[in-house]
Amino acid sequence: MLPTVQIFEITLGVGERPCPGRDCPQCGGRVRLQKHGSYHRYCEVDGSRSVVVQRYLCPRCERTWSVIPAGMMPYRSMPVQRFEQLADERFGLADGGARPPPATEKEDGCIRRAMQKLSKRIPLLHGLFGQQLPVFGNTDICRFWRAMRELGPTLDTLVRLACEFKTSLLLCYRSLLPHWEREPTPT
């Protein structure tokens, strides 16, 4: 069984289906994917709510593609908006308005692990954003987060990273790598 590929819904147009990659040995990306059921994914770190994730199937290579609903972090059970609130609060960017509820123990662990991953990706992300971010030390996550937030909301950053650079904020996903950098799909 081939691994499932995840696509960020907001990178697709309204009503569009994901397309298989050009590296697919069976179809080279020229086949229309078929709906192939769905599954529930937690959208809160405590598991109190879930969302439906639509799956698609390539009829030739039988790889499945999951479309992550808008507002969700790829491979994380925390909504982008809550992630942004907690990170802003952690780095002193919370606005003067109503404070968001404090992080639960599970949310705190989730944001802590996410920030550890993000701190390792600062050099890569800084290189992608180039002159839009000021030059600073490669591991200063607080300054990096502040500079990144000046570029706009985290959701916009996720979409930009997926569309323009084929990567994500916390991890490089195989499904988002350019076709020439992926391992060949087994036949």
Describe this structure in words.
The protein is an alpha+beta fold and 187 residues long. The chain has 2 domains: 70 residues, no CATH class; 86 residues, no CATH class. 22% of the residues are buried. The mean pLDDT is 79.
The average pLDDT is: 79
Number of strands: 4
Helix content: 25-40%
Strand and helix order: EEEEHHHH
Which parts are unreliable, with pLDDT below 50 for 5 consecutive residues or more?
none
The major β-sheet equals:
4 strands, mixed
Describe the strand arrangement of the main beta sheet, using strand numbers.
1-4-3-2
What's the gyration radius in Å?
A: 18 Å
DSSP helical segment count:
4
Q: Tell me the strand percentage band.
A: 5-15%
Number of domains: 2
Terminus-to-terminus distance: 11 Å
Class derived from helix and strand content: alpha+beta
Features:
single chain, 187 residues, alpha+beta, four-stranded mixed sheet, 4 helices, globular
Structural topology:
Blueprint: E1 5-8, E2 34-42, E3 50-57, E4 64-68, H1 80-90, H2 105-129, H3 141-150, H4 154-165
Parallel strand pairs: 1-4
Antiparallel strand pairs: 2-3, 3-4
Summarize this entry quickly.
By secondary structure, the chain is α+β, with helices and mostly antiparallel strands.
